[in-house]
Amino acid sequence: MMQLAYAVYQPPDALTGCLQAMGIVPNSIKVVEANVPEYGTVRTAYVMMAANQRIFVLIRGSVVTRDALTRDVTINMACRHVQPPENTFETPGSDIRLHRGFYRAWQVLEPGVTAAVQAYLKQVPSGEVYVVGHSLGAAVASIAALRLNAVLGAAQGSRGTVAGVWLIASPRPGNAAFSQAYNSILMSRTLRMSNNQDFASRMPYPVQDCNIDNIAAGPAALFNLNSLFASTARFEFAHVGRAVLMCPDPRTGLTDFRMFPRGSEVVDCTATADEVDASGATHQLGSYFDAWRRGYAASRGSNLATDPRVQSVLCNACTQRAETVLEQLAVPARPGGPVTCGADASCNVQRAFAAATALGNELVSPFGRGGSSCVGFVCA
């Protein structure tokens, strides 16, 4: 699913080979793009179908280019509550409130995404729908999943409802009423992953001061603190879904999976508040994959250095060669897993595994008591 979360950041024509290895039907990717005019940003989703009749909705997060990221920051910061129409999610009660920016992102995407999903369900009436997102895209994906479940359930009864949701590095999308409504329907079908020190899983705070006016589109608004905070109000936010918090073990360099089957607001690995990674490294999909494979190894008593099941594979066919090592690492795959580019001549296992190891060692080193030394794959 991390591969799919990464795929939506790439142009569709660059994905055919790798997605086909996952069972995605060639040329099935439908691109949905829609403008959010008040924030000057374009939101993107991909809808695609697999040979096993599963339909995937992938929602893109923030785009890391200077201008696009600045505009995406404005939509992330537009956190004041908005109330969706009462029957939006087909749940009783009218206390649901959503993060305005996340809800607006879904509102502009909804017509195109819903039409694409329904078109595929006409081809495969028994098809199952899965929703995947990373970062901003994960917050939007949670809103999308509950809405699609309502729309498709009303149209098709028990068929075509959302069968699974993967939220990677998700911010909090709405208030406690939304969380309760979501969890009453999709809790058991959702997995939300949070990485150690990731800033995004902490935002918005459970109690957050938000600008109650529309933030003007354009970069200048971000640096005009007088306008940004001139009129604020306090709002509450909560996470959704079952959760797994990935915490580094300083003794082994592996990962401890802390599972919360009933959901949780816990985002810190230590008893006190963890230092938040301001660089954003722990927020990258590559870091998430590295933490996951370290936990996969730990759960099986494996040796991270020699177990081929957890070696990451860098497939250059799935990424842009000009990207940094950290960004290249965000293309996860592993031999024997759902995606492997091992048969591709352009793949370089050693380079990717070395990059993953270097990044992982850097992330766990601050947790060593009295200073830690990292050799190879393990920090002591």
- Total number of domains: 1
Number of helices: 10
Largest sheet: 8 strands, mixed
Q: Would you list the SSEs in sequence order as H and E?
A: HHEEEHEEHEHEHEEHEEEHHHEE
CATH superfamily assignment? Alpha/Beta hydrolase fold, catalytic domain
Strand content: 15-25%
Subunit arrangement of the protein: single chain
- Helix proportion range: 25-40%
Structural write-up:
This protein has 380 residues and is of the alpha/beta class. The chain has a single domain, classed as Rossmann fold. It is 31% helix and 19% strand. The chain has ten helices and 14 strands. The chain has helices at residues 2-7, 16-21, 66-77, 100-123, 136-156, 176-186, 225-228, 285-299, 325-328, 349-364, and strands at residues 30-36, 41-49, 54-59, 81-82, 98-99, 128-134, 162-168, 190-195, 207-211, 232-236, 242-248, 255-260, 374-375, 378-379. The strands form four sheets. It has an eight-stranded mixed beta sheet, with helices on both faces. It has a two-stranded antiparallel ribbon with strand order 4-5. A two-stranded antiparallel sheet has the order 9-10. The longest helix has 24 residues, at 100-123. It is globular, with a radius of gyration of 20 Å. The two termini are 31 Å apart.
